[in-house]
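Annex B. Sample input.
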Amino acid sequence: MNDINLLSQTIKTCLLEQLQIEDPEAEVIVKQTSIGWLELRIITNYFENKSLTEREEDIDNFLAVIDFHLGQNPIIDYELLTPIEAKEQPAQYIEFPLWSDILMAPEPDEPAKIDEDIPAKKPLIVTFYSFKGGVGRSTALGLVSGILATRNRRVVMVDFDLEAPGISIMFEEDIENINPAQMGVLDYLYQRTLTPEENIPNIVDCIQRIHLQTRGEIFLVPAGEYNEYYIHRLANLDVHYFYRSDHNAVKQLIADIQEQLDPDIILIDARPGFNDMGAIALFDLADTAIICFSPTRQNFKGLEWVVTAARKQQEYQGKPDVRFLLTPVPVVAKEQHNTWINEVENWIEDNWGLPNETTIGQIYSQILYDPAITTLKSLVNSVDKSLLDKYLNLADTLDASLPDIQPNSIIKSVDNRRTILHELEFQASTAQELEPNDIPNIFQKTEDFHQFLSNRTWLILGAKGTGKSLLFRLFVEQPEAAKGLAQSDINVNNVNFIPGHGQPRVSQTILESSDLESYEQQVGKDAWQLFWKNYGLLQLCRCQSELRLISGLEQELIRLSSQDNPSHLEIVSWLVQRAKSPDKRLQATDELRIIDRWLQDNNKVIWLLYDELDAGFGSTPTDYQRRQKSLEALLGWWLEIGTNLKHIVPKIFLREDIWKQLNFTNTGHYMGRSLELRWDEADLWRLVLRQALKNSRSLSSSLEQQFGVNAERLNIIGLEQLRKSLYPLWGERMGRGNKAYTYNWIRTRIADGKKNCFPRSLILLLQEAVKKEKEFSTEYSSDITLRPKSLIDAFPYVSQQRVAEIKNEYSELIEYVDKLPQGERSPITQDRLAEIWGIKDSELTAPIKSMVDAGIFIERTRPKDPPPRVYAVAELYLYGLGMVRKGQR
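Annex B, continued. Sample output.
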């Protein structure tokens, strides 16, 4: 029994086997101290009404089975308690907040719970720590302090790197008032340890104010005057005494700073490595720890123990929360940079894990190396904005954990948040489900709307759900509303909008998948260009009756387009006849030119809009082949003839992944003629506000009074004002523990693996959150309508709906999506996918590529990396697939 670990387990097993006969709820905890002693804590009803001596005798009798007793080495201490006594004497497993004590402590019975809805803490104490020096820790702290100060935060920096002061030296030239006493952290701790009853030194003598050329306040508590006496005091400083005595000098230092300055945030610069002062700053003082490191093997190895200790301490007392700062990242080729980032993300997920509702992007920030840092004379004055921008993400993370500077007063003008909640009605219908009259009310102009209006833009690309069909329906079914929306960008009053293809309900002459199949069967796979020419002619003459009066058009075309309700069989027969007849093959081009000249003479333009090109051909492999041949012909034909047709303009709406599969001559000529639909952040918030303003009179009135926000001004309001205007709806932050602005939390969750944001998923999230909020029995802050929990609880439903939509859009992926097991972790390796899907490695390429193209998977490895390849599942699909993030806890 010389092995201490074996002895610990043997004692625990022996006692539990015998005690649980009498008390099934008995607990035995054996703790190993840092120097190898054992501490024993036994909690059982078996001790009820027994004296300590009787309890000791019983335990010794039990231990006799293994030839052991309580007074024997290496047991140094023991507690023999009933459950009631245990509640009155909670276990103190971590005597000192130092590395060894924390690492040796057993896992807590119940980890501390963090309530995300509690008010933000002031001051927030943030410790900047690095396992190794030279990674830009102090620089990051200094630059972040400057950013926070410009936001009217009162910032205090404390230099705990007593062996090699960093912040103290870096801010020497910025000190506004040189304190004659020149005291600091070491002086305070040393003297308060010797004479705790005296107020020497006074905290005022340890504080220095930093001169700022901008608004804000920053104060510095330096390490102390750097002289020979400093070194002697440092050698005699015993941090263990702080926690043995009744007067904890470290806690008193923080309390005095708080009383004297009332700061919003205290930033502590901690000593690198496994030292006592670094441990105190990291584990005892910090609410949040910023772990700074570079992606090297040495850093990863040391940081494994850092995060292990941080997690143990968090489980005991609910802090510190940990965020990582990757710094400095050398500027290298994109592939090498991606390799580093993948390694960092994998390491964080494996070692720290991802707290619930937190994505990997919220856990870390990265700082690219900038040589300008080495030439800085000041970290807070005259710093180039491009350098500060690198640290904004980290500053935002900390700022999001602080209370509002001024309580949000927007909703206070409304007597009852329940009134707003009752009024809110978000409409998340798909473009296909909307009634025509509702389209103008739902439609939101995006930043690229003006580009769509250009006659040079022929190809409109976008993922399914990014608004292509709604844009199509607006112009085809609500042309006057469309012209009104376009008025501020371009005058399109002389333009008519005609569906070249789309939903059958838009026009009687729009064909369905069975019609397209029938056409190909009759004329072959190579006659699709003729199809699109004649099909376009039919739509033009069908929708614009005056065109039928133009001389030079075929009489059968005029007759067919004049019918109120032509049968699809008749239309297909006409298209087949035109394709097969040698005399008719060139006629379609001539007729289009005749129409184009007539339009020119009459100062008119026609947009021929094509939609439903993804679903309109069917969903079998044969249908997909037909679709590819047909679309290649459509796009190729417009390149051939389109530049000659000045007044007939195509607008072809196409799914981005389908476009990438097409192969036809001069594909590159669509460069400069294509638009990729993307929803920028401002577009998303305008969409939300448009619906909220429309439905809630109370909210609408309040927003107009406070911010001048109304439906008419939405398109000219800037991003920052849009964000603030949404605070009454969903607040500024997602709870203290998440350290995420609500708008960022939402935006990252409605985006797929290709960074496409889905407006319908956004509105669906709010629609469901309103339902959840109405179901809560407890009231929430009067300042906001939707609490963070309602959004969090609503998101799984949104993810499930998005998975259902993706299966509807990509029927060829259904079998692969359905086979992903519940509880499977993301990222997932190629080998694991082969096992799940039951296919060989050689057959994996196509389905994986399709999953990546659909935005479900995100590749986490480079093409040159050795196998197996690794793929992450986009957050938008994770819950809907029943999967979990690797490292999620």
